[in-house]
Amino acid sequence: MGKVPAYMVVHDLIKLKIKDGTYPVSEFLPTEPELEKIYKVSRTTIRTAMEILKDEGLVEIRQGRGTIVLDSRAIQSLNKVTSVTECLRNRGFDVRTKSMYIDIIYATERLGKELNQPIGTPIARIQRIQLINEKPIAIIKDYLPYALVPNIEQFTNKFNGLYEFLEQQYHLEIESADDKIFAKSADFAESEMLAVLPGTALLCIQRICYKGAQPILSDDVCILGDQYELSISSRGRNK
């Protein structure tokens, strides 16, 4: 392996300090001369590192004022039904789908229970990797009764946001959802798909979506934990 360029070393160190709060969101980073002294590198190295951080959405370079730390995490409110894709778009990210694969499987006991379908019922399975600004952020698997989305396989790579697509193409309006949320460490396959190290923290959301009382969609999402957070508002005490 070759030696890591100095600008990447500086980039990694500053990124780590942004993530752990040493350089807080909405605050300016030390000036270029200060960063040169801290990291013992040239002005060119600092500027190259800053450009990469800017491209990653972590900082904003303000001419004549300095470099400010941005809140790069997408925050999804669970008080309304919204998808990961919609949430990312609303935060201004360029969202694209990579490696979409749609096939037809048959309901297992678990899927049958989740979707209220007999075991063996044809189920459309949609698997894809979601990118923001061309960087992998989430692995998404979706399951729907095939009778609700006939011929959906012909739309492979034709959409990014599934909820919007279902509304427009199949007139399926998601009215409510039940979520199960947990953390896990990325296994080898997940780390390869997301271009991170095995063991990286993932935020996982398992969701059942409903139209009325009928479950119509099962979602299984694993998303990079340092890029995403969930917001919940509660009212009243349950004793």
Description:
This protein has 239 residues and is of the alpha+beta class. It is 27% helix and 34% strand. It is built from 7 helices and 10 strands. A 6-stranded antiparallel β-sheet has the order 4-5-6-9-8-7. The protein has a two-stranded antiparallel ribbon with strand order 1-2. Helix 1 (6-19) packs across helix 3. The longest helix has 14 residues, at 6-19. It is elongated. It starts with 5 loop residues before the first helix and ends in an 8-residue tail after the last strand.
* Oligomerization status of the protein chains: single chain
Low-confidence stretches: 74-79
Mean pLDDT: 86
Q: Structural class, judged by helices and strands?
A: alpha+beta
**Which percent band covers the strand fraction?**
25-35%
Brief summary:
It holds the Pfam family UTRA. By secondary structure, the protein is of the alpha+beta class. Helix content is about 25%, strand content about 35%.
Walk me through the topology.
Layout: H1 6-19, H2 32-39, H3 43-55, E1 59-62, E2 66-69, E3 74-77, H4 84-90, E4 95-106, H5 109-115, E5 122-132, E6 135-145, H6 162-170, E7 176-185, H7 188-194, E8 201-211, E9 214-224, E10 228-231
Parallel strand pairs: 3-10
Antiparallel strand pairs: 1-2, 4-5, 5-6, 6-9, 7-8, 8-9
Helix pairs in contact: 1-3
Task: List descriptors.
239 residues, alpha+beta, two-stranded antiparallel sheet, 7 helices, 10 strands, elongated
